[in-house]
Every structure is written in C-alpha cells, then in structure tokens.
Write a structure and sequence with these properties.
Keywords: ATP-binding, DNA damage, DNA repair, DNA-binding, Hydrolase, Metal-binding, Nucleotide-binding, Stress response, Zinc, Zinc-finger. There is one protein chain. The protein is α/β, with parallel strands linked by helices. It is built from 10 helices and 22 strands. It has 3 domains: about 5-35; about 65-270, 3-Layer(aba) Sandwich (Rossmann fold); about 275-455, 2-Layer Sandwich (Ribosomal Protein S5, domain 2). The protein has helices at about 70-80, 100-110, 125-135, 150-160, 185-200, 225, 325-340, 365-375, 405-410, 450-455, and strands at about 10, 15-20, 35, 85-90, 115-120, 140-145, 165-170, 205-210, 230-235, 240-250, 260-265, 265-270, 290-295, 300-310, 320, 345-355, 385, 390, 395-400, 415-420, 435-440, 440-445. The strands form 5 sheets. It has a 9-stranded mixed beta sheet with strand order 6-5-7-8-4-9-10-11-12, sandwiched between helices. The protein has a 4-stranded mixed beta sheet with strand order 13-14-16-15. A hairpin with a 2-residue loop joins strand 21 and strand 22 (about 440-445).
C-alpha cells in the first residue's frame, strides 16, 4: 500500500514547518501563526537564464572595486571601502549613533559626486536635515526620502538612480500585500530580499540599519544575516563618547578589524589613535593601577585597570566591576589567595577600566592581578610599566597572541617596562625562571607565574603598611 503523506503545517511568520499542528511556533515563538500548508502540486521546470555562464577568468572585477566612503575607520573595517552591489547591515543599540554615522557616510559619498539616497522610516526629512546642518552633512548630491512602504522606496530608486542607498531602518519598512506588521519576520525577509535584488541588479551599495534585541543580538530572522554581504555591529557605552564598529561577517575583507569613533555634538569623527582615551595621565606612581595591552581585531589598544580594596563591614563582601568580566575577577582573586597568599575574603573589591573600555580578553588577567595586589598593599608598581598575560588556575602565566604587536605599541607610547608570560615548561615539567631582555628600547621581563610577576614589580608585599586584616602569607 502507498504511504499516506501527512499534511505539513507552516508558520506564517518565519515559515517554520512541523508535522502536526501546534498553538505556538517552535522557532519564532509566535502564537496562532501555525496553519496547514498546501502540498506542492507541481515541480519546477527548467527556464530561460538571465545571463549566460562564463569562465571565471573572463569575469571583470573592475565594477566591484572598493570605493572610499569618506570615513577612514569604516573603510578599515570594510576591508577598503564600499563595494558596488554590496548589501551591508549595521546593527546597534538605540542611541548609539547609527543614524549619525550613516548620515556622515552618505554626506561624504555625495561630496565625491556620487548620488546618494537616504531613506528614513523613523524620522521626517526635516529632522534629518537638522542633524545634517549640525554635523555639516548638507550636500547637493544627497537626496532624502521619508518612506515606510517598500514600493515607494523602489520608485525613489528608479527616479534618483543612486550609487549609495541608506535605509534607516529595515524594521520600519513594510511591503503591501504581505501578512504581518513591519518588523515581523515575513516583512523583514521580503524587504531585505527586494532591496538586495535591486543592489545586485543595479550595482548599488545598500546599507541597512538593523535593530537589536535586549540581549544584544540582531532583531529579526537569522536569514537576514545570511542574505547580506557584510554585518557590522556598532557598540559603545552611553556614558562615554567612544564608539566602535566591529565586523561580524564580511565577504570582501577581514572580520577581525574594528573602527574607533568619537561621538560628539558636532557629529561623529574617526579616532585613529584611541589609546589615549583609556589611559589616565598620573603625575606619579599610583597604587591600584596597571596598564593592560589588549587586541581589538588587529589593533593593539592600551587600557588602564584600576582597583580599590577596602575592609568590608558586611558578612558577604562586595565584588563590583566596570568594564571587566566579573567571573574572571573572581578567578583572579582565587588565584591570588591560593598561590600568592593575598586573602581578600573580608574586603570589598572594586575594579574598573578608564574611559569606558571593555576588557574581555584573558590577556588582561595579569594587569588586573597587579592592580589588585597594588591596591591591597598600597604599593604602587613602577611607572611606565605594562602587564599582559592570561592567568591559569595553577597560577601560571599563559602566552598571549600577537605579543610582538602589543610590545611595539607599548614602546611607541613611551612605556619603558613590560611583564609578559615566560616560555612553555620543559619536558620534565620544570617551569622557566624569570628572564630580562630589551625589545625596541623597552625592558621586557618574562615571568613564569603570577607570583613571580608580582615580586618583580614589587607589589607582592606591603612597602610601608598593609590594610588592616590583610593576611599576606
């Protein structure tokens, strides 16, 4: 007997399929969107091709050459600039400066006699004009349109024939004739697919602004990130003017590059040397501070870590962090207690970074340990010193990537001493001892473990006095 094919059910929001009816979609969690899908009755037959297949050696790449956007830091992230026919998705939290950045890109592109169309679905054209007046982005070749209908946007593209199209944002645009509200899964997929089709057929660079959810991921269907060529994430702290653009996906360049910007009242400007934003200029040696060297993409950045240790009157002392991973701070405290004899179970610990920098790389563990030990014993480390290295649970220091680039950046900025992890252990399990060498005029000390690093910097024991109740072993 022929096997009976059970009818499939499909979600009208995200096209998720299931063999039985359910009240809630298992993919997008929408209620009442799962309906019975009609079984396909025909098969797709061969049809005429739009363009004939050619040898790859005969394909010209001149039409897809990089074009500068006028914002050097953005070109750095993109791999050289804007590519004609590329679809770029820029996502970020509300108020981080996405519209300001793209208006600057549109104005700089229009200033190079490239016609640009800026479509806004969240503001009126007059509001965008006011921001352009404030940031100096008024150009004759820059066209503004306030539209929320996909068909109207396609008409604007036919009329203006731009080189660059900016849509702010894709979640506010709706396509008539489709179910769902603008921003829904079906609407976002159709709007993005239509704009990407226009970008490929007319060789237009399309930049789409995307919203993010409360957990920081890009809102909408995951297929949106697969459709576009480049996915950029615009991030920054609201309490700081510093902003960073990070490439998550890039078909035309690397994905380990970041761009740095300064968001101010006059607009957004590129920051080619952002290290000075994260280092405090002290006039002398200050206890509880240490400078770490972290890698943001391919760019080494120096950031200062500050720590404060005070006796606690509570049964459970506080552990407060800002710009640092709280779980790694707890691990560093445990290593300091177990392997260095620094017991802080009765003290409040506060650790933060300067300038709103976020240090999530394990290479900043040693700088955190030096700052904590220095704050505990009120003993300042030597001036002009940087520390980098990942701390293991056994107290050892592990090697970090791109160490020559980190040392070269620290030497360029005038630091005279660096403490780095020593080489690997010998086959017999014997750890190497601390060694001293000179690189680019900077003294580099190789320390095998965190205890050796603290002793070399002179912060392992109190110089004059210790905090009341601190057991230094």
């Amino acid at each position: 007997m022929a096997k009976t094919v059970r009818p499939a059910f499909r979600c009208s929001e995200c096209s998720w399929e299931t063999g039985k009816w359910v009240g809630r979609c298992g993919e997008c969690q929408a209620w009442g969107s799962v309906t019975e899908a009609a079984a396909p009755t025909t098969r797709t037959a061969a049809s005429a091709v739009t363009t004939a297949a050619v040898r790859i050696t005969e394909v010209s790449v001149s039409e897809s050459a990089f074009r500068a956007s006028g914002v050097p830091e953005l070109d750095r992230v993109l791999g050289g600039g804007l590519v004609p026919g590329a679809a770029i998705l820029l996502a970020g939290e509300p108020g981080v400066g996405k519209s300001t950045l793209l208006l600057e890109v549109a104005a700089q592109t229009a200033a190079r006699s490239h016609r640009t169309l800026y479509v806004t679905g969240e503001e009126s054209a007059s509001q965008v004009r006011l921001r352009a007046d404030r940031t100096g982005g008024v150009q004759d070749e820059l066209y503004l349109a306030a539209e929320t209908d996909l068909g109207a946007i396609l008409t604007h593209i036919e009329t203006v024939r731009p080189t660059l199209l900016v849509v702010d944002s894709v979640q506010t645009i709706g396509a008539s004739g489709l179910e769902g509200v603008p921003g829904g899964v079906t609407q976002v997929k159709e709007v993005a697919a239509a704009l990407i089709r226009v970008a490929k057929t007319r060789n237009i660079t399309v930049v789409l602004v995307g919203h993010v959810t409360k957990d920081g991921s890009i809102a909408g269907p995951r297929v949106l990130e697969h459709l576009v060529d480049v996915v950029l994430h615009f991030e920054g702290d609201r309490n700081s003017r510093f902003r960073m653009v990070r490439a998550i996906k890039n078909r035309f360049g690397p994905v380990d590059e970041v761009g740095c910007f300064d968001l101010g009242p006059e607009g957004i400007t590129a920051v080619t040397d952002p290290t000075g934003l994260f280092i405090e200029n002290h006039h002398g040696r200050v206890s509880g501070t240490c400078v770490a060297v972290t890698m943001e993409g391919r760019r080494p950045l120096l950031a200062e870590v500050q720590a404060l240790v005070t006796p606690s009157a509570m049964e459970r002392p506080r552990r407060t962090t800002s710009g640092l991973d709280g779980s790694r701070i707890a691990m560093v405290l445990a290593v300091l207690q177990q392997h260095c004899g620094i017991r802080l179970h009765a003290h409040d610990v506060f650790a933060s970074t300067v300038g709103g920098a976020r240090l999530g790389e394990p290479a900043s563990d040693l700088a955190v340990a030096v700052a904590l030990a220095s704050a505990t014993f009120d003993n300042a480390p030597p001036a002009g010193v940087v520390a980098m290295g990942e701390i293991g649970l056994a107290g050892e220091l592990r090697r970090v990537r791109d160490l020559p680039q980190r040392l070269a950046e620290a030497a360029r900025l005038g630091f005279r001493m660096a403490v780095v992890p020593a080489g690997p252990s010998t086959p017999g399990g014997v750890r190497p001892t601390s060694t001293d060498r000179t690189i680019d005029g900077m003294r580099v000390i190789d320390a095998p473990d965190v205890a050796s690093a603290l002793r070399v910097l002179g912060v392992a024991r109190p110089a004059k006095r210790a905090l009341h109740g601190v057991d230094d072993g």
